[in-house]
Amino acid sequence: MKDKIREAVEYLENGHPYKDILSQDDIIDAIILLDKYLNKKKKRPEFVQILNPKTKRYVKINKTIGDIVSHKKSKGPYKNIPIRRRNEKINKLG
């Protein structure tokens, strides 16, 4: 990642079309934004899904509250939502 930042700094200082207009503060701001973007961590999903054994459909659950958000009408799990195992607990806050 530091290589990408170094390449970006060289580009801003030497090869950028507006290098004459960019101030040192502009370059520093761009480096800070680039560093934040490259080091950005993905948020943990706030939803999980579990298979309802009676209906054989998946149910989406809010992890923070523990409430059921929605029921899946079609077969198969929701996309990009982790499947919770039966033995895992969900913390209820409210």
Q: Sheet bearing the most strands, described? A: 3 strands, antiparallel
Distance between the termini: 41 Å
SSE string: HHEEE
Mean pLDDT: 78
Indicate the overall shape: rod-shaped
Q: Class by helix and strand content?
A: alpha+beta
Give the low-confidence spans: none
- Please indicate the percent range of residues in DSSP E strands (runs of 2 or more): 15-25%
Strand order of the largest sheet: 1-2-3
Can you count the helices?
2
The helical percent reads 25-40%
According to DSSP, the number of beta strands is 3
Q: How many domain units?
A: 2
The rounded Rg comes to 23 Å
Description:
By secondary structure, this protein is an alpha+beta fold. The protein folds into 2 domains: 2-38, no CATH class; 43-94, no CATH class. It contains 2 helices and 3 strands; from the N terminus they run ααβββ. The chain has helices spanning 2-15, 24-38, and strands spanning 47-52, 57-62, 68-71. α1 (2-15) packs antiparallel against α2 (24-38). The chain is rod-shaped.
SSE topology:
Blueprint: H1 2-15, H2 24-38, E1 47-52, E2 57-62, E3 68-71
Antiparallel strand pairs: 1-2, 2-3
